[in-house]
């Protein structure tokens, strides 16, 4: 089933397809299985990082940059292409169809940029945004702390104003991609005397500063993709405070709530591919004759189809100009819980082989097979970006209109 999004979108799709055909360097699609790496690979995959070091990738990156198709959803005045959510979805789909990567600027693109666009001054926008597009500044997110995850407003990291600088001291935890970042967006408490949401500031800091130290936290898959970080009196100019002093909660809510328009419409594609890979694994191992495995595979197939229809519904809503609401939580809950179960099915298909670590130095000296990695890494999906319990709370309160959960006042 395809969705008719009208003649303008059909024309945009045709132009995009032609542009990709004319500009994607030969060999890029074969470099790696981008479609798989980009979405379901998620946590625990090093393949994307390896592939981005290939010269064909650099050439593609330059082509996209020239055409303003890095951060294409940003307004043109900030270096983007000003694509609306439907066009972003179509652009993503066409890249996916051509099996070439969307060059992404990670948290800079999806979280910091939109927050600076909404809350930054013109001077801040002129300074920080181009550096994200060129890839000069790579951000990591300094929100969570030991003891502060779901209850983000309880954060303890201190920010003290000293003349025209802010001095930040505290500990952050679970910082994804910290080892690759040169900047961090930090939430810190700048006024401890007021209600907890009111005294927080949102600051961009230099993560290469000698007063920053971090160490990797190893996951059960063996990879170490996130870190704990120690900020020991790191100084940043007041210019780097976004949205004004003590106004960080509002900025953080923009950051957390920013909708990456259209990603729901391509989400199922990667899960679909993964499903067929698993079906093939079952066939090779002969477990496709096992009625219980067949039943569970049929269940997985139906879940991926549900994701496909949910994606079409999200796209139809965007095309009618409706902004995504609590659907984002429904989608997040759905894919993360599905993926954990898929990992369990994969382990049952692998049988006792699933218990054996392969030879070699694959994943940071703690090798895992592809399916072991899916099984282990999928556990993280229902924790990051808000746990499943938090998503259920949001669905209950904002989609179903149920009473708010009782909260203890701090
Ligand atoms: C792979 C991965 C990458 C991450 N990357 C980053 C990053 O880059 N930057 C960053 O700042 N953080 C990051 N995080 C941290 C993530 O945001 C937190 O782990 C998450 O918000 C949960 O917080 P917590 O771990 O402190 O658990 P807690 O908040 O302590 O929760 C513990 C348990 O209690 C439940 N719970 C908590 N509150 C409620 C409630 N009100 N109602 C019902 N149940 C509740 C939770 O669902 C959970 O099961 C990452 C986490 C993971 C796993």
Task: Give the SSE map.
Elements: H1 7-23, H2 28-31, H3 34-41, H4 47-51, H5 55-66, H6 85-98, H7 106-119, H8 122-134, E1 139-142, E2 158-162, E3 165-176, E4 183-189, E5 200-206, E6 212-217, E7 226-237, E8 241-242, H9 248-257, H10 263-285, H11 291-319, H12 327-350, H13 370-381, H14 388-399
Parallel strand pairs: 1-4
Antiparallel strand pairs: 2-3, 3-7, 4-5, 5-8, 6-7
Helix pairs in contact: 1-6, 3-10, 6-10, 7-8, 7-9, 10-11, 10-12, 11-12, 12-13, 12-14
The protein binds flavin-adenine dinucleotide (FAD).
Flavin-adenine dinucleotide is lined by residues 43, 140-141, 143-144, 149-150, 174-176, 226, 380, 383-384, 387, 389-390, 393.
Can you summarize this structure?
The protein is α+β, with helices and mostly antiparallel strands and 410 residues long. 48% of the residues lie in helices and 13% in strands. Flavin-adenine dinucleotide is lined by residues 43, 140-141, 143-144, 149-150, 174-176, 226, 380, 383-384, 387, 389-390, 393.
Give the key terms:
410 residues; alpha+beta; Butyryl-CoA Dehydrogenase, subunit A, domain 2; Butyryl-CoA Dehydrogenase, subunit A, domain 3; 3 domains; 4-stranded mixed beta sheet; 4-stranded antiparallel beta sheet; 14 helices; 48% helix; binds flavin-adenine dinucleotide
Which ions and ligands are bound to the chains?
flavin-adenine dinucleotide
Total number of beta strands: 8
- Indicate the CATH topology of the largest domain: Butyryl-CoA Dehydrogenase, subunit A, domain 3
CATH homologous superfamily of the largest domain - what is it? Butyryl-CoA Dehydrogenase, subunit A, domain 3
Order of strands side by side in the largest beta sheet? Answer: 1-4-5-8
Strand content: 5-15%
Give helix % range: 40-55%
What do the pLDDT scores average to?
87
**Overall number of domains:** 3
CATH architecture of the largest domain: Up-down Bundle
* Radius of gyration from CA coordinates: 22 Å
For this structure, what is the CATH class of the largest domain? Mainly Alpha
Uncertain runs are 36-44
Structural classification: alpha+beta
């Amino acid at each position: 089933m395809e969705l008719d999004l009208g003649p303008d979108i059909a024309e945009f799709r045709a132009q995009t397809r032609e542009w990709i055909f004319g500009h994607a360097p030969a060999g890029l699609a074969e470099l790696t299985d981008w479609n798989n790496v980009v979405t379901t690979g998620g946590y625990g995959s090093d393949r994307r990082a390896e592939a981005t070091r290939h010269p064909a990738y650099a050439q593609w990156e330059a082509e996209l940059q020239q055409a303003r198709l890095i951060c294409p959803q940003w307004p043109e005045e900030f270096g983007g292409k000003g694509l609306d959510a439907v066009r972003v979805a179509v652009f993503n789909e066409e890249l996916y169809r051509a099996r070439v990567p969307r060059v992404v600027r990670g948290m800079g693109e999806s979280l910091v940029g939109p927050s600076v666009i909404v809350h930054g001054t013109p001077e801040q926008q002129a300074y920080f945004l181009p550096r994200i597009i060129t890839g000069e500044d790579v951000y990591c997110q300094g929100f969570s702390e030991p003891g502060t995850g779901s209850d983000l407003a309880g954060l303890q990291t201190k920010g003290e104003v000293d003349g025209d600088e802010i001095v930040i001291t505290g500990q952050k935890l679970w910082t994804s991609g910290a080892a690759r970042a040169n900047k961090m967006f930090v939430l810190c408490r700048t006024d401890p005397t007021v209600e907890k949401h009111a005294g927080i500031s949102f600051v961009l800091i230099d993560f290469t500063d000698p007063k920053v130290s971090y160490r990797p936290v190893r996951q059960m898959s063996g990879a170490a993709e996130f870190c704990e970080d120690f900020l020991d009196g790191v100084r940043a100019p007041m210019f780097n405070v976004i949205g004004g002093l003590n106004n960080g909660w509002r900025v953080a809510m923009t950051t957390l709530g920013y909708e990456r328009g259209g990603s729901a419409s391509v989400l199922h594609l990667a899960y679909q591919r993964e499903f067929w890979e698993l079906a093939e694994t079952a066939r090779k191992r002969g477990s496709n004759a096992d009625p219980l495995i067949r039943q569970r595979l049929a269940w997985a197939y139906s879940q991926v189809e549900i994701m496909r229809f949910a994606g079409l519904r999200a796209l139809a809503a965007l095309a009618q100009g409706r902004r995504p609401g609590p659907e984002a939580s429904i989608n997040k809950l759905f894919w993360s819980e599905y993926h954990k179960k898929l990992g369990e099915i994969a382990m049952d298909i692998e049988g006792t082989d699933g218990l054996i670590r392969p030879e070699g130095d694959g994943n940071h000296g703690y090798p895992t097979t592809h399916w072991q990695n899916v099984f282990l890494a999928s556990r993280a999906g229902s924790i990051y970006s808000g746990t499943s319990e938090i998503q259920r709370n949001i669905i209950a309160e904002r989609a179903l209109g149920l009473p708010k959960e009782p909260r203890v006042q701090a």
